[in-house]
Amino acid sequence: MSEKAEDANETPERASGVDPRLLELLICPLTRQPLQYDREHGELISKKAGLAYPIREGLVLMTERDARKFDPDAK
Amino acid sequence: MDANSPPLVFDRARHIAFRDRAAPGFDEYDFLKQRVSSGMVERLADSAHRFPKALDLGSHSGTLAWKLGESAQVDHVTCFDPSPAMAAAARESGFEAVSAPGETLPFEEASFDLVASALSLHWANDLPGQLVQIRRMLKPDGLFLGAWFGAGTLAELRTCLLQAESELTGGAAPRVSPLPGLQDSAALLQRAGFALPVADVDHVTVRYGHPLKLIEDLRGMGEQAAFAAGGRPLSRRILMRMAELYIEQFSDPDGRVRASFEIVWLSGWAPAPDQPQPKRPGSAKASLARAVGGVEKSAGEKAGG
Fold first, then answer.
1. What is residue A14's predicted lDDT score, i.e. its pLDDT?
2. What CATH class does B12-159+177-206+260-292 carry?
3. Which residues of chain B have a CB within 8 Å of the CB of A62?
4. pLDDT value at position B83?
5. pTM, whole model, 2 decimals?
6. Chain B closest CA to A57's CA: distance in Å?
7. In chain B, domain spans
8. Does B52 touch chain A (CB under 8 A)?
9. Could you read off the pLDDT of B79-126 as tens digits, one per residue?
10. How far is B292 from chain A, CA to nearest CA, in Å?
11. Which domains does chain A carry?
12. What was the ipTM of the complex prediction?
């Protein structure tokens, strides 16, 4: 259960249900590369794959179907 | 998967769809998951270690995660399930949850002190690959505890479906997943580089009023067959004939039918320098039988090392 750790960190990420320490452990399942957390949009960005994985109510959905696609080469 | 990969046994998308469908009512069909999850926490207690960060791999709706969270040895549990609906159910139970459909697990190396997996990994097309990934996700001296359905699971159903289908159609397609046996499982652990690997098997017999109730349970667990090769769906006629054969051959005196589940248990540690090392095979100088004062005879059903 997450309760034991919960009181320690009341950050915005915790409020949205995702512990920043979890985000640090995640990699892109397609490229195996680290992900960038876009706090504003609640997305995990895989630059090389051109995918932004959504975090919906604390659930990290790393599926291509649910991801927002972008051009990996665009700046 | 590249061209050199072995052919896929399971249709992953289909299996995930079955899991998704089972998610809302899973708690009504989770008796095996409950049993295995309780057993897993008991096994955890055999070790004096503490496990600050744990991953429940193939968490379904969070049955095992819940029990791990109650253990004083574990501080924090993350749930992972390939089915978004199962992961969402775990999330609703208050756990951090991640879902990704492929067999590449989306976690950095050395992320967890414990990876626990109850009745899920038997769906992997690349079981050796899954185990290697798990070992890498563990911190040095981290523990993997797993349980999966092994060979011999649903032997009665397998037999009766085969008979029914060949009787009625003159041929038969595989209807029950191929599953790893105890020896295979132990060898897989060892090959994946785990230290002190151990595998053993737990035989569970479930009794049903009718064979079709077993089928309903399997669906409720999201465990119905999902072969990559596809094949014809099971017709009602074959199912009914299967049920007749099942009742004929596998009934107890009270009229209930038996269904066997073989649960293979696995444990192994991520290697670390200061771990106890097993001696090299053959390096012993005295026989164990003499040491314990018994007579040498063949070992029972226990494998690993």
1. 43
2. alpha beta
3. 98-100, 106
4. 98
5. 0.87
6. 8
7. 12-159+177-206+260-292
8. no
9. 999 999 999 999 999 999 999 999 999 999 999 999 999 999 999 999
10. 44
11. 3-69 (2.20.25.10)
12. 0.80
